[in-house]
Please model this.
Amino acid sequence: MNKRKNLELQKRKRQNFILAFMLAVIAIALLGRFLIAGDKELDPEELTPTSKSSVQLSSTTHAPTVLMFPVHVAGAVKNPGVYYFPEGVIVSEAIAKAGGPSKDASVEALNMASLLNPHAKLYVPTIEEVEAGEIDFSIDSPGVSNTETASGKINLNLATEADLLTVPGIGPSTASAILRYREENGQFKQLEDLMLVSGIKDKKFSSLEPYFYLP
Model:
């Protein structure tokens, strides 16, 4: 009986030893897997792409915005129109952008090196206009139209519809009437001739006279 009990006791010890050994192996495997996973998360090789991406995103900068302003290039140029320019552009560059001067242009009447004025009109006169004395503006102020003097008065014989509409008291119908009179009767000889235009009488003429001049 004692011998049998001893055998059973040894058998249980062996089973317990095997079970303990297996549990230890499993625990070691789990611990090793956990440590390997931790190393992977902290591996600098795997973190490098993310870091580079972050640096690239943070170093990305927007190009500075270039402010552009319009200028109406008119007169004796090949392609008159409204063009947009950045700051620092001079008259010669604006004329070049409009196709260059026409054959009858008098570019000598302009300061080709002066800066453009934003939202202005650059008028290139013809040789005939210069010789006739029809140009009355400072050649150092390219933003002033040939229809205006430095004081802001408008040349009645050169005024366009747009010029006329800038005058207080002149609407589309009156501007059309002035242009029609000039087409049918030629240039105005004196400012008082405005009263010959339909719709302009003494009182209205008195309010319009300060805005016009004749060379």
